[in-house]
Amino acid sequence: MNEDYQVTLTIPAEADYLDLVRLSLYGFAHRLGYSYEEIEDMKVAVSEACTNAVLHAYPGERDGRITISYEKRPNELEIRIKDRGAGFAEAVPQLSQVRLPERPASIHEWEPGGMGIYLMRALMDDVEIAQEEGTEIILKKRLPN
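RE: above sequence
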């Protein structure tokens, strides 16, 4: 498969639809030759981005949507997760400054959340956040050899 191509999926901003996102990513990435481990890493990163949109983009709204696109580029797979809800980019002015949250003394003291952007950066080759009419997270992974 040498040509560039794209798949776009628009889902309700509800956790019940995230399995569909992961399944479609698996199918798309598998066709491009990514290994099982690489696909699992991408699924975690995309799940984190989608979960952020589900939890934070549309507070108090019931009809929010998330658009996910997978695009094969000449040297990489580009994944875009876009919502039109409340943004959060101001809270993360520099992605390079995002660090793993401090580890609490006990696992029972660990607060949920706070690791999504860190995980995306750790698992993908490039992560960008665009803040225009909502939030768009752009994840990139080099194509396998």
